[in-house]
Design goal:
- The structure is a single chain.
- With 175 residues, the protein is of the alpha+beta class.
- It has a four-stranded antiparallel beta sheet.
- It is built from six helices and four strands; from the N terminus they run ααβαβαβααβ.
- It has helices at residues 3-10, 24-35, 54-68, 97-112, 123-126, 130-138, and strands at residues 46-51, 82-89, 116-120, 145-154.
- It is 37% helix and 17% strand.
- α2 packs antiparallel against α4 (97-112).
- The protein has a single domain (3-154), classed as NADH Oxidase.
- The mean pLDDT is 97.
Length: 175
């Protein structure tokens, strides 16, 4: 079977990570996969922020936890040492779609590299907050961007489950 199709079938969301940091090379390969995602008219209007600084990572986790309404101590990133925030330029008509494709590519790349990954929501609400807008300003991002999601990334700390059976009635052909 084609390796890409195989990865698509086998990839699963990981919700328990080892604290070990992936290599910079592995992180860069995951990020690069996102850069090659399809985008509306080839505009490439998505940006990615790779967070490996533990203090900032923990701040993202705490704010994300609060937005999600979970109790203190819960980590919505499941212990992943790397968080990649993906944002789309608001002025671009396909924002939201483009960033979703970036995240999808990153999830597949992580799997292909033997890493675990999980799409985590609430980036939109985070980057509506002034403290997170300040992060963008410090990075030199001067246009308005909307958070699409995060990729929690690291080494899995549990077996990867087998894929569940696919539901029937989800594909229609018109010949």
């Amino acid at each position: 079977m084609n390796e890409i199709l195989k990865a698509m079938r086998e990839r699963r969301s990981v919700r328990k990570f080892k604290p070990d940091m992936p290599s910079k090379e592995q992180i860069d390969q995951v990020v690069e996969a996102g850069l090659y995602a399809a985008s509306g008219r080839g505009e490439q209007a998505s940006i990615s922020i790779v967070i490996t600084n533990k203090e900032l990572r923990d701040k993202f986790a705490d704010v994300n936890r609060q937005i999600g309404g979970w109790d203190e101590g819960f980590d919505p990133f499941y212990g992943a040492p790397v968080i990649i925030a993906v944002l789309d330029r608001v002025s671009w008509p396909t924002h939201g779609y483009d960033g979703s494709l970036v995240i999808g590519n990153m999830l597949l790349a992580a799997h292909a590299l033997g890493l675990g990954a999980c799409w985590i929501h609430r980036a939109k609400q985070e980057f509506e907050m002034d403290e997170f807008k300040t992060i963008l300003q410090k990075l030199g991002v001067d246009e308005e961007y909307e958070g699409i999601g995060h990729v929690a990334l690291g080494y899995p700390d549990a077996p990867i489950p087998a894929p569940p059976a696919r539901k029937d009635g989800r594909v229609f052909y018109i010949d």
